[in-house]
Design brief:
250 residues; two-stranded antiparallel sheet; 33% helix; 5-stranded mixed beta sheet; alpha+beta; disordered C terminus
Length: 250
């Protein structure tokens, strides 16, 4: 009972993708979270008993909630306000910073609209590719790019320019596990990892992995992974500093 049939490959397990809240980002901007009711109608938020600022906040929460799976930090509101200014303050190594115009980002992303860029930035934030940091002393907020987010709750966040960060890193496309079988998704992760290190994925090597039935099976998985489109997925098309994908041949 429970024994695997001879010759039947076991499915690889795709690492769980924890939510932003589960990974507990550092800083005061992540101490307060909004639980958003699914299906909130933004157009119906117009209570005359509320101030204009309160209505504006509720509308932002209702609009952004789905991008954060209906559990969003106060940092998301701060990020939305920063986007409204038309420039993003990006904090770099050793306290250096730069302002990136939203219009410039839109041009780089094949002429996307301001709202398209807004959504893309929030999606990056929702998966932990960037975080918001508040400077309470000067009452300002800025964006910090994440070099490596924790793989599981309780692990450390590593930021761009940190001395303890080893590059290159390899991103795992969000939602991949919902679109393709687990064994193919595991193969995508292997192939992206090797390519990010400027190595060619080797079916002989992968054929020895648990759940892979030799080189021929590995080649079949490679072909399925390539056909999925996730092996060559380049999230950096919408990333302010290109940190989602570190391949040099893009």
């Amino acid at each position: 009972m429970g024994r695997q049939k001879p010759g039947k490959p076991r499915r690889l397990r795709v690492p769980r993708q924890y939510t932003l809240r589960e990974l507990n980002p550092p800083g005061s901007a992540y101490e307060e979270w909004f639980q958003v009711q699914p299906g909130m109608d933004v157009d119906k938020i117009n209570d005359t008993n509320l101030s204009a600022d309160a209505i504006d906040l509720m509308r932002r929460v209702a609009t952004l909630g789905p991008l954060y799976k209906n559990a969003m930090p106060r940092a998301a509101i701060t990020l939305d306000w920063l986007i409204d200014t038309g420039e993003l303050p990006i904090m770099g190594p050793a306290g250096t910073g730069t302002m990136i115009p939203i219009g410039e980002m839109a041009e780089r992303w094949r002429g996307a609209s301001h709202e398209d860029v807004r959504e893309s930035i929030h999606r990056l934030h929702a998966v932990g590719a960037l975080l918001i940091e508040d400077n309470d002393e000067y009452d300002v907020s800025f964006i910090r790019m994440v070099a490596k987010r924790p793989a599981a709750p309780g692990e450390t966040w590593h930021f761009d320019g940190g001395e303890d960060v080893v590059v290159p890193q390899t991103c795992v496309p969000a939602g991949m596990g919902e679109d393709i079988p687990a064994d193919v998704a595991g193969t995508v992760i292997f192939m992206r990892s090797r390519r990010s290190q400027l190595q060619t994925p080797d079916p002989d090597e992968y054929g020895k992995h648990d759940g892979v039935n030799g080189p021929d099976h590995a080649r079949e998985l490679f072909a399925a992974a390539e056909a999925s489109g996730y092996v060559d997925y380049k999230g950096c098309d919408v990333c302010p500093t290109g940190h989602l994908c570190t391949r040099e041949d893009q």
